[in-house]
Amino acid sequence: MNTPLHKIIDKFQSLIAFHSGTLDISIERTDKAGTTNSKAMVFATSLEDLNAALKSKAAVVVVNSKFKEKLAVTDKTILLSPNPYLALALIGQEFFARKANKSSYSKENIHPSAIIGENAKIGENTKIGPSTTIGNNVSIGSNTIIGANTTIESNTSIGDDCHIHSQVFIAHATELKNKVEVHPQTSIGTEGYGYAHDEEGNHYRIPHYGIVILEDDVHIGAGFCIDRGVFDNTVIGKGTKIDNHGHIAHNNKIGENCLITAGFIVAGSSTIGNRFVSGGRVSMQGHTAVTDDVQAAGLTVISKDIDKPGLYAGYPIQSHRDHLKTAASLPFVPELRKQVKKLSQ
User: Fold this and answer.
1) Beta strands in 149-231 (DSSP E)
2) pLDDT tens-digit profile of 8-34?
């Protein structure tokens, strides 16, 4: 679907501004800087992107405002933005998003093969996919999509404008607020890993009475597991985005607007503040607290409390700067050991 450029600019006047070229064009899609699509809008966040964009067939180039003085004469339409990456996200969502097709399941809002429990409440314009099971006393808001072969157990509540993809498991009494997205093969609200032991080494499961709460605009990737609490709830804060393949154990509290990438594992009863950012395969010890505005580099193990904002890395965990020094020193340790041994003889 083509969108007139002036319509895009009018919608996002605070984020993009006309610089040169013509407004009398329509845009078919957003694309990468080196596109061959003559109806594309591309976004130059770096000088490398800018050079590729100007050589491409793109009709419109959104340029970081700080590169304004480096712009050469071009026949392309140029827009300026203080944050082209944000412009890419918001313009893409508004005009060119590939949204789930609510008509792909059946003409009815609830597919004939779905099982709907007693006293379940389904909001207006909500779609329930094939072979999905909705338990007793479940509440689902309006404009939500529940994909095929998904199970939502009893007494769960799901808000408006959510998208629960196919093959998701949501355990009993879980709470999902509004605009929550959960990708396939993810489990939310499963019982945590907790056992008592007798003198003979037998193990006895401890019942979990807490629930899982996903606040507004939380996104959970595919193949992720989030456990319910023993007595307290497991809570994922508003606006937090979680990647694929990981585990959040029982009783954890994750703050707002965090970015958690693939392979993240946190043991039980830990707390993470707001705006936490993790690299890939970060792990976190149980009963540990992390303050606001902490970033953990990939493969970091958070083995102790972090009470100061900043960038951390490694195991044992250090400031990122100290970790780089440690990593640079490691190759020389064997030779240093030899020298020390000689000196001690």
Assistant:
1) 151-152, 157-158, 163-164, 169-170, 175-176, 181-182, 187-190, 195-197, 203-205, 212-214, 219-220, 224-227
2) 999 999 999 999 999 999 999 999 999
In single-letter form, the type of residue at position 136 comes to N
Catalytic residue among 165, 183, 208, 250: 250
Query: What one-character DSSP code corresponds to residue 110?
Result: B
pLDDT at 224 (0 to 100)? 98
Q: What's the CATH fold of domain 168-325?
A: UDP N-Acetylglucosamine Acyltransferase; domain 1 (2.160.10)
130 near 148, Cβ under 8 Å?
Answer: yes
Identify the CATH number of the domain defined by range 3-95: 3.40.1390.10
Asked if residue 222 lies in contact with residue 184, where contact means CB atoms within 8 angstroms, the answer is yes
pLDDT of residue 166: 97
How does DSSP assign 248-267, residue by residue?
E-TT-EE-TT-EE-TT-EE-
250 is catalytic: yes
pTM of the shown model: 0.91
CA distances from 78 to 15, 89, 95, 126 (A): 14, 18, 19, 41
Examine domains 3-95 and 168-325 and report if their fold is the same.
Answer: no
- pLDDT 10s digits, 201-239: 999 999 999 999 999 999 999 999 999 999 999 999 999
Mean pLDDT of the chain: 95
Average pLDDT of the residues in 105-130: 92
Tokens standing for residue 203: 């193990």
Instruction: Yes or no: say if 288 and 270 are a contact pair by the CB < 8 Å rule.
Output: yes
Amino acid type, 105? Y
Is residue 130's pLDDT more than 70? yes
